[in-house]
Amino acid sequence: MRIVLAAALALMTGPVLADQVADLIAGTIRECRGCDLQGANFKKADLSGVDLTGANLTKATFHRARLKGAVLTGVTAVDANFNLADLTQAQMAGGDFSRGLFYGAQMSGADLAAADLSEARLQTARLTSARLPGAVLDRAVMRDAVANSADFSNASIRQTNLAGAHLGRSLFDGATISHAGLVKAKAGSASFVGSRILFTDFYKADLRRAKVAGATLTGNRFTTAAVAGVEFDKASMTGNFMADGRLQE
């Protein structure tokens, strides 16, 4: 009896999912709040402005899709593929994008407040002026990402790879940055006010005029980093390798 019921439910669910996907791609519908779109294929689809609030997008494919201004607030998009997608000014606050793929994605101006991007792959993604306050970026890969003037305040940035990332004028106020890699990152005029930065590698990073007032800096490597204008005396400093290679006592 259970097997028959399960088969009947599968027959009912399959066509419904297919219809929703087809209608979204065709533009017949512009809203699918709370829909179960797990595993759906939206590759190269134009979904600009669609409202998918609270939808299940687990393992869905949005490769090269247009999602400009789309509403993805509170979605579950674990293992979803957004590689090369256009998410300009998308609303993504509170979404679970853990282990998501965002290689080369355009995310400028996107709202990712309190979003979960743990273990996400964001290499070369563009996050200019994006909002990520309270976001979780633990173990994410953001090599060569462009995130100038972005807001990472109070974010969790643990074991995150930001090598070569462009972070000029970005806000990290109150963030926790631990065991992260910012090798050769370009973070001039960035603000780390009140942040906790622990055992993080800033080797050859550009930190000129960065603000560190009230920050706690412990066990970090600033060897050969550009630090002109950084007022380290306004931070709590313990056991850091400074720009001249000297180990701070």
Query: Which strands sit side by side, in order, in the main sheet?
Result: 1-2-3-4-5
**Beta-strand percentage range:** 5-15%
Q: What's the pLDDT, averaged over the residues?
A: 94
Coarse morphology = elongated
Specify the structural class.
Answer: little secondary structure
Q: Could you tell me how far the N terminus lies from the C terminus, measured between alpha carbons in angstroms?
A: 72 Å
Number of strands: 5
- What is the subunit arrangement here? single chain
- Structure annotation, total helices: 1
Major sheet: size, sense and barrel closure? 5 strands, parallel
| Proportion in helices | 10-25%
The helix/strand order is HEEEEE
Uncertain stretches: 1-13
Radius of gyration over C-alpha positions, nearest whole angstrom: 21 Å
Give an overview in words:
- This protein has one helix and five strands.
- Strands 1-2-3-4-5 form a five-stranded parallel beta sheet, with no helix packed on it.
- Mean pLDDT is 94; it is low at 1-13.
- It has 249 residues and is low in regular secondary structure.
Short description:
With 249 residues, the protein is mostly loops. The protein has one helix and five strands.
List keywords for this structure.
single chain, 249 residues, little secondary structure, 5-stranded parallel beta sheet, 5 strands, disordered N terminus
